[in-house]
UniProtKB/TrEMBL annotation:
Domain Outer membrane protein beta-barrel, chain residue ranges per copy: 21-183
Pfam families tied to this protein: OMP_b-brl_2
Name recorded for this polypeptide: Outer membrane protein beta-barrel domain-containing protein
Organism expressing this protein natively: Haliscomenobacter hydrossis (strain ATCC 27775 / DSM 1100 / LMG 10767 / O)
Superkingdom in the source lineage: Bacteria
Organism taxonomic ancestry: Bacteria, Pseudomonadati, Bacteroidota, Saprospiria, Saprospirales
Length: 217
């Protein structure tokens, strides 16, 4: 991951020749858009025997915080960011070897480092913006580890995109963004050595507030 952080640093340095440079900090809430369609469903062991039934219960709210560099030229800007994000999801897991028992609700927590590079246009106090985003897996804790057959296989790096808008009031920033991922949700789930994934791709809404230091010229 170090080489990607180095890339961010080089990109930040490159913006120094773009125009006025301002630095900022931000924090906000993240809401995952996850549904229960096309679930992995029945999980079989190596011999093909049905052992478990897995279902997505819901995605929970998460938090993120980080810092940014905004390079402005006229009404346009480039804004690389470095954001830490933490969120979670709930799963229901039924043991088919014990019929008549209700499914147990289990929770997984995820921590990521996101590096979006936003390209935007200012329309008075309003902003429209979008760009690519690197998504780095940092850590995860999971109640699913209660089952010895469960393993995690996260991709260290995935690619996504960000679209949204914002409002600048003096040095205060308010942003609403849609974050999409090109990888399917749940592609880290492994039972009995077999990978399972949901058909949908993970997406999120992000509402944040931030502060830009310095005055815009």
């Amino acid at each position: 991951m170090k080489k990607y952080v180095l890339f961010f640093a080089m990109l930040a340095i490159a913006t120094l020749g773009f125009g006025q440079i301002r630095f900022g900090v931000k924090a906000g809430l993240v809401s995952s858009s996850l549904t229960q369609e096309d679930l992995p469903g029945i999980i079989t062991d190596a011999g093909g025997v049905e052992r478990l039934k897995l279902a997505l219960e819901d995605g929970n709210y998460g938090v993120n915080f980080g810092f940014l560099i905004r390079a402005e030229l006229g009404n346009g800007f480039i804004q690389p960011e470095l954001n830490f994000q933490s969120n979670s999801a709930n799963f229901t897991l039924d043991d088919l070897g014990q019929p008549g028992t209700s499914g147990e609700i289990l929770k997984e927590n995820y921590q990521y480092l996101d590096i979006p590079v936003m390209f935007g246009l200012r329309l008075g106090p309003l902003r429209v913006q979008g760009g690519p985003q690197g998504h780095f897996f940092l850590n995860s804790t999971s109640d699913l580890f209660e089952f010895d057959e469960y393993k995690q296989n996260f991709s260290d790096f995935t690619v996504g995109y960000v679209l949204g808008g914002g409002l600048d009031i003096w040095n205060l920033m308010i942003d609403l963004r849609y974050q999409g991922n090109l990888n399917r949700f749940g592609d880290h789930i492994t039972f009995f050595g077999k990978e399972y994934e949901f058909s949908q791709r993970a997406s999120q809404w992000n509402l944040s507030v931030g502060w830009l230091f310095g005055k815009r010229r």
